[in-house]
Specification:
Strand content: under 5%
Low-confidence stretches: none
Helix content: over 70%
Shape: globular
Distance between the termini: 16 Å
CATH class: Mainly Alpha
Amino acid sequence: MEQNVRESWGSRIGFLMAAAGSAIGLGNIWRFPYVAGDNGGGAFLIIYLGCVFLIMLNVMMAELALGRKSQISAVGAYKRVSRRWTFVGVMGVLSGFLIMGFYPVVGGWATAYIFKSFTGLLVDPAAIAGHFEVFIENPVEPLLWMLLFLVVNVLIVVKGIKAGIEVAGKILMPLLFVLLIVISIKSMTLEGAGAGLSFLFKPDWDAVSGQTFLAAIGQAFFSLSLGMGCMVTYGSYLNKGDRLPQNAFMIVTMDTIVAILAGLALFPALFAFGMKPTEGPGLVFSVAPAIFAAMGNIGIVLSGLFFVALAIAALTSSVSLLEVVVAYMIDERGLKRKTAVVFSASIMGIMCIASSLSLGIWSHVKVLGVGAFDMFDFLTDKVFLAIGGFFTAIMVGWFMDKKALKEELNNQGETPFKLFEGWYFLIKYVIPFAIGAVAITGIRSVEETGVVVLGMGIIALLAFISKKL
């Protein structure tokens, strides 16, 4: 088998922009507003921030440390600790595959809505919601936009780490922040916007339930690209001189800022125009365009900019998901990058076709009561990501050599991580319990229970098969 030369990041800022791009995605702009709207606004935000900085920041540090120490993709990184943990790395690669089975579909929607914003979508605000339903049920149009979005992913990832992913991150991430800031300022200056700000920042604790905590921790995993091998893979390209705790904190902070900016872009305008925040997944594609339509001519421009921001966020995350799978193909199977990218993207494209059609002409095809789109989403969001994070914390806290781990986070003593003992206590004792408790208590439907059982069966099978890898 021919050995491929391993790449590395060209600069710290390049890594930070790429890693932040991985974390900042549909979870921030498409998913965060409607999940927050469905779970009490301000109360959800506080619980989400707690999950992010008390749990996810520490899990991210663990994944980055694991990746840099191993200098190999997710499967190999876990295997090097112990062969019995290989299945966690395999689960991360599988999660990347499954998420990319529906992620480019939504990325295609965002790309389509950039053009739709300037070609008559906003002319009749009353018809916008119906237009979205007709659009996603169309058997052809969403597939064309999905294909375009997937091809852009391929063109970036095939160029590699420095020339592809790093360059894209340096260009796209600053642009994303500027776009969201512009839209947020306009939203907050609308008459009646104060009610939206109150909803987002004033907690309603009566709306909190076990489901709120599950939604918060699921959103945090999904948003920060944890439990899916992204940060392990990106960490494997890091140089030994990079400061892991500081980098992890900056990535988490940037991700959180974008989520809040997305809330500021939507909630003040929602309340200003008398609309409901509890619109579910259609909030961004059905309600947001109606908001922009009510703003007159400037709304057309803002709508276009908003969907540019959404498409950028989707692209920077999907690139990292594709890279997880590609890195596995390169490191573990010895494929050339171009071959690995084309092969992986082809399978993902087939899965995306099933996901897109499951919202339309294949809507009658169900497994455990859900279609392909929802199945891929449920399996990753409700099962693989949380369990991947759970096992990562267990492995790092209980099975990795503590001294070696400390040296990794201390950069071999060059930049001491003074909070190491507190971090180690959390990753060993607190975080596995917190993730497990929230995941167990949050299941609320027969369909979700069925998907969880299916997911656990898949994990058990992976654990068995991984011993042979």
